[in-house]
Amino acid sequence: MDRRPFVYIIDKDEQAKDATVKLIEDQKFKVHAFSDAQRFFNFIQANTSPVHPAMVLVDVLSEGVSGFETVRRLTARYEQNLVPIIMTAKFESPEDYLEATNAGAITRLMKPFTFKNIVSVIEKDKARRLKIEQVTTVFLK
């Protein structure tokens, strides 16, 4: 049984999806890639594993179910602090960034990106959450 941490990728652009799969697999992760959100949701519904993915990458432009709606559903399914959800996009849009973070994504990365970019945003998000936890602890004492 393959026990490597796994990543979900949802991207309708086959070329971008293939490049992201290679990027993630080169880091020794197992990858489940989908061309649309409905196929992804069908997969996770059929595979009710208690193991959470290491992260989920969702393209802003998605067929059928929008990327933003996909992130909202994922945020409801997984505790956000346990599963980093990152939106990806080809084009810069402040509105998309705001909607992505409001939906529950930790950020939106512009394509093409590197694995170092992914690690950086996850580390920044963890540091931000730790600061919030520390401040909350001080005020709740």
Describe the structure in brief.
This protein has helices spanning 14-25, 37-46, 67-77, 94-103, 115-140; strands spanning 6-10, 30-34, 55-59, 85-89, 107-110. With 141 residues, it is of the alpha/beta class. It is globular.
Biggest pleated-sheet summary: 5 strands, parallel
Global Rg? 15 Å
CATH H-level homologous superfamily name: Response regulator
Helical coverage, percent range: 40-55%
Task: Give the spatial strand order of the biggest sheet.
Answer: 2-1-3-4-5
CATH classification class: Alpha Beta
Strand content: 15-25%
Task: Write down the overall mean pLDDT.
Answer: 86
What form results from the Cα inertia axes? globular
Number of DSSP helical runs: 5
Unreliable sequence segments:
none
Per CATH, which architecture?
3-Layer(aba) Sandwich
Rounded to the nearest angstrom, the distance between the terminal CA atoms is 46 Å
The helix/strand series, from N terminus to C terminus, equals EHEHEHEHEH
Would you report the number of β strands? 5
CATH third-level topology? Rossmann fold
Structural class: alpha/beta
Number of domains: 1
